[in-house]
Amino acid sequence: MASIPLPALDRPLTAPYWAAAREQRLMVQQCNACQTRQWPPKPVCSTCLREMTADDWVEVEPTGTVWSFIVYHRAFHPGFADRLPYNVAMVRLDAGPMVITNVVDCEKPVIGQRVTARFCPEGDEAVLVRFAPVA
Ligand SMILES: [Zn+2]
């Protein structure tokens, strides 16, 4: 059985995010100059264009709201074949940034639904941040 594609955990740009996820914490980049929060991580601040460093990270509340989603009924990678159907959702974090994720533990996401993070081990070392409806 094929596995899903997993992220490289040791790239300097994204390593803080993956390390925090392994500790069940959610982090986003936050520019130390202008306080802009952004996800996914970028080499420069999207507001003031300052070069981001390993210090430009902040832990945020792992909560948000479903902004949009789509349900896949066809596997475009063999690793997803046994997961069909599955959703890919855009969740607006309460902390600001929008993340692309999956909403789990529900039949189908609902736009506007409140969600909280689920830290899901995948493969040997990765922990993916998915979201589930707030009970
Ligand atoms: Zn900035």
From TrEMBL:
- Chain segments annotated as coiled-coil in the UniProt record: none
Q: Which species does this protein come from?
A: Novosphingobium bradum
Report the PANTHER family cross-referenced here: BLR3430 PROTEIN (PTHR34075:SF5)
Pfam families hit by this protein: OB_ChsH2_C, zf-ChsH2
Q: What is the protein named?
A: Zn-ribbon domain-containing OB-fold protein
Which positions fall inside the ChsH2 rubredoxin-like zinc ribbon domain?
18-50
The domain of life is Bacteria
Report the InterPro entries cross-referenced here. ChsH2_C, ChsH2_Znr, NA-bd_OB-fold, Thioester_dehydratase-like
The taxonomic lineage of its organism, from the top, reads:
Bacteria, Pseudomonadati, Pseudomonadota, Alphaproteobacteria, Sphingomonadales
All copies of the ChsH2 C-terminal OB-fold domain together span: 57-119
